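Hi there. Long-time user, first ticket. I'm pasting a complex I've been working with (about 635 residues overall). I'd like to know whether the download I got is complete or cut off, because the file seemed smaller than I expected. Thanks.
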Amino acid sequence: MTEPTGFDGSPARLGVALSLSLAGVATLALAAGSPTGAIVGVLGTALLAPGLLRGQRRLVDLAAAALVVGVAVVGIEGAPPVPLVVAAAASVAAWDVGENAISVGEQLGRAADTRRAELVHAGGTVALAGGVAVVGVVGFRLTTSTQPVTTVAVLVIAVLALTAALRL
Amino acid sequence: MTAAAGEGATPTPEASPDVGDAAGTAGTHEERARSASTTVESDGEEEIVETGRWTGISALVLFAAGVGVAANSPGLLLASLLGVAFLGHARLSRAPSPTLSVRRVVDDPRPDPGDVVGVRLTVTNEGDATLPDVRIVDGVPTELAVVEGSPRCGTALRPGDSATVEYAVEATRGTHEFGATTLLARSLSGAHERSLTASVDTALTTHPPLAMDKLVPLRGLTTPYTGRVPTDTGGEGVEFFATREYRRGDALARVDWNRLARDGELSTLEFREERLATVVLVPDLRLRSYVRGDEDDPHAADRAVTATGELFSALLESGDRVGLAAIAHEDIWLPPGTGNDHRARVRDLLATHPAFGAERPETGASSVWGFRTIASRLPADAQVVLLSPLVDDGGLEMARRFDARGHDVTVVSPDPTTDGTVSERVGQLRRSLRLVQLREAGVHVADWGPDERLAAALERAGRRWST
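Hi, the file is complete. Here it is re-exported in full:
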């Protein structure tokens, strides 16, 4: 009986809007890579929207998976690294912000003022994604011209070592 | 969410050390009731929830890395490295250990029923680390409805920053203690969440309205004193009752002079005596009574207490002597009495006595024990008004026992039943059977519907009783 009008635990509006915008950015980046990527990107965004509006985590996860598959497809088709990295960063950020909006909605509800928490969270995520993307692309540009094979090998080892270290 | 946090949080023993910052009012009783604050400090013992939100993403990152290797695409590997950075960030981030002070201010700690009371909860980051995600859920008393704003808020707090949650509740009868405020502090990545609870002692005390301008229909059992309950005895009074043969000593005013002139016989007029009743109000507050039909309705026990207040006031108004008892987990007995002091005492008891708490108590009372205690205290000439939802046989049994001891019993029964599901309909049916059983036993029963005013229910029932 705490809230007589009924507790509306649907995802927070601001987070939903931010997440969908990020998915849009990811789709644009995929489209810049290849037409197939654009199709997969639109599919991912189309899955994300109902998932966020209804607060269904499974759909949101599925949408993130679709966007990552889009990134993989564009990568196989041999797109340059910049759109790939941007698409990947925006996909993960869209998922992160969207999932956060769902959890904020569940815990605090629509009626509560949650803008500050959401903005800070989204800001942190975008900053991290942007920073890593810039460092990655710049590093990539500096190294590929001279030692492409080494770079690839080092990256693979780094990825595997890190994932192992993270016990995932 | 708060299981282990209760022990971890360390509320300051002094509930309101910084009460009344406003100059001059410091320490006054009124001010202490209005605002209170406490500080909670994380001591690392609280439960840290790993939200596990990043688990699924790791699979996607591995997938992208695998495809990158297979397709010999450095760009894709770079993209997956970005995913790894996210995972690493989530993995390396620690749950924050906040120190937060919580202060709650209510506009009016003693509102009237139906008043909208503003509540302001201020949470301040007293630590020296920035908290990127603080979720605040205030412990609104369970029986109070939030009518404005939301008692929850999500924010980020720099050291020294504070966030204010403002909302308003609608006051209802009784003493309503605010529960603990739940504070969730999340790391920036959202991978870890620490929950703290802060108990700020604030309460709203609302006295019931003691107002009902309608006569309560009572039964025949009365005291020897003149009052307003019509009896089946002839004597002094207003309404004609009978005539009888003149007896030596009868007042001259009551001799039927008309008849003497006509027949020459001396006879005496008798009038219906109107006497004073002693009534003891007994709300049935066993755990069984804490039921309600609709989530938004007050439970039957609360309605019974509210009705007790209204009946009390109406009976006192009509000059009857009224006492108060209850079948409740806390013993309560106020012998029948009259007067303004009595009225004030009852008003206070109904608002603050633990037996009449607005929330469902932990322990209940048994009907047999409750009956015995009350019966041993009842004056022999007292009528009993039992206020019970009659959702089990206990209420029925009590009404019968009071009746068997010679007290005239009236049952006022707030109806908590609904007809949604089959079992609810069965409950409704069984309750109406109990009403029938009581009526057959000669007990007066007023069935009080959920949206009905008490006066209307009594009016309706009173018509049935008088025929």
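A couple of notes from our side: Chain B has four domains: 2-49+95-206, 50-92, 226-275, 278-466. Residues 138 and 151 of chain B are 5 Å apart (CA to CA).
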